[in-house]
Design brief:
heterodimer; A: 4 helices; about 25% helix; B: mainly alpha; two-stranded antiparallel ribbon; 6 helices; about 45% helix
């Protein structure tokens, strides 16, 4: 015997089924959440960092420069230590960083390489004031044109020029006839792309006066122009134009 | 009261939003009863349309609580970013392979040598380029580093320079 319910009762039954479904779903949700909590799924913690170490005894290049190079490549978790012999580095870091450091150190620790340096002293000013001293020659017109585009000066006079051959680690001092002296110690060629000039000093000989004392990172691809002037609106400046090229045997 | 100069009042309030320019309260009272001023006032300062909204005071504790919530969200975001992922394993394996390859390729370590077109140097990343001048011994100097046109140029400006 089939039993038929009035429409109002059918609607009530449907609503009850929905309520029951919701209650069951909510209960399942609560039970799942409770089980998850009980089984202890903590919020994910950072994975512990695994450090590896690499040891290298330097054969050719200065330890201080090697340490400085390594420091630029270390990850925040890494460290570098120099052993008692003063020539052995112990680097600890994550594998990714260590792989970079190993390659860089091998490239760094090469026998002292010869380089050719070019040093030019240039007076820069405006044609109105003119240069009163003795010029050593004409500045390369292409370089003068590029300087004109970068600086506010129109006139460039070559005061002195020299080309020096030296090896990494050599002390270099050169006195120009124009009354200036340049001195520095050649650092290590970094991947053949950059050369550090330590204790780079430009001074005037008459009357004696130090003009600048710094460390220069000389790029290979382009000359470095070091401009010295009293203030931004000064009518003239002294430019030191530095360039280098590695000689065969690197 | 005659219609106030809304442009001037708005300009004064823009200069210092916390300050009340002279005649501001009177102007607002006038605005409520002067339909002619409504357009001029709103054109000068459209925010005047909200002038009747209540301004609930915010206590310092509420500001601190809000700040703490934002901080917690930022920290949670960082934790999420640090979560180990499956790719971490492959990254670790790739790095281990690179170190292993670099160690094996050391001269004298074995017969394995880089193949044509493959060099260890290619695997090693270059350190970041250092500044052209490092450690200038002149505290009063101003240093400008310019570049371009195939030149690297550093201009050192110091009143004590006698060039």
């Amino acid at each position: 015997m089939s039993r038929s319910l009035p429409p109002a009762s059918r609607s009530l039954a449907a609503r009850n089924r929905i309520r029951l479904g919701c209650a069951l779903g909510g209960w399942l949700l609560l039970v799942t959440a409770g089980l998850t909590g009980a089984q202890g799924f903590p919020s994910p913690a950072p994975a512990p960092r695994v450090l590896s170490s690499y040891t290298l005894t330097l054969r050719h290049q200065p330890t201080a420069e090697a340490v400085a190079l390594v420091r630029t490549l270390l990850s925040p978790a890494g460290s570098v230590e120099v052993k008692d012999d003063g020539r052995t580095l112990v680097v600890r870091d994550e594998l990714a960083a260590l792989s970079r450091i190993v390659g860089a150190l091998r490239s760094f620790d090469h026998p002292a390489a010869p380089v050719r340096l070019s040093v030019r002293l240039v007076w820069a000013g405006s044609p109105q004031i003119g240069f009163g001293g003795a010029a050593a020659g004409e500045l390369d017109p292409e370089l003068a044109g590029r300087l004109r585009r970068l600086l506010r000066y129109d006139s460039f006079v070559l005061l002195s020029e020299t080309r020096l051959e030296a090896r990494e680690g050599d002390e270099v001092a050169y006195e120009f006839r124009s009354g200036y002296q340049v001195r520095f110690r050649l650092g290590t060629l970094l991947a053949g792309q950059r050369l550090r000039l330590h204790g780079f000093r430009v001074s005037r000989t008459q009357p004696p006066a130090d003009l600048i004392h710094t460390t220069v990172n000389l790029p290979l691809a382009q000359p470095l122009i070091l401009g010295l002037t009293r203030d931004e609106g000064s009518a003239s400046a002294l430019l030191v134009v530095l360039a280098y090229e590695p000689l065969p045997g690197v | 009261m005659s219609c106030p100069d809304w442009q001037r009042l708005a300009a004064l309030r823009e200069r210092d939003p916390d300050a009340e320019p002279p005649g501001w309260r009177e102007a607002l009272a006038h605005l409520d009863g002067c339909p002619a001023c409504a357009a001029a006032a709103l054109a000068a300062d459209p925010l005047l349309v909200f002038r009747r909204l209540p301004r609930p005071a915010v206590r310092e504790e509420e500001v601190a609580a809000l700040g703490a919530e934002v901080l917690a969200l930022v920290r949670a975001g960082r934790r999420e970013a640090r979560r180990p992922r499956r790719r971490g394993f492959w990254r670790g394996a790739a790095a281990a392979a690179l170190v292993g390859a670099a160690l094996l390729l050391e001269p004298g370590a074995g017969a394995l040598r880089p193949g044509p077109g493959v060099t260890v140097a290619a695997l090693a990343a270059e350190p970041a380029a250092p500044p052209l001048l490092d450690g200038l011994e002149a505290s009063s100097a101003r240093v400008y580093q310019l570049g371009g046109d195939g030149l690297a140029l550093v201009l050192v400006v110091d009143a004590s320079l006698d060039v």
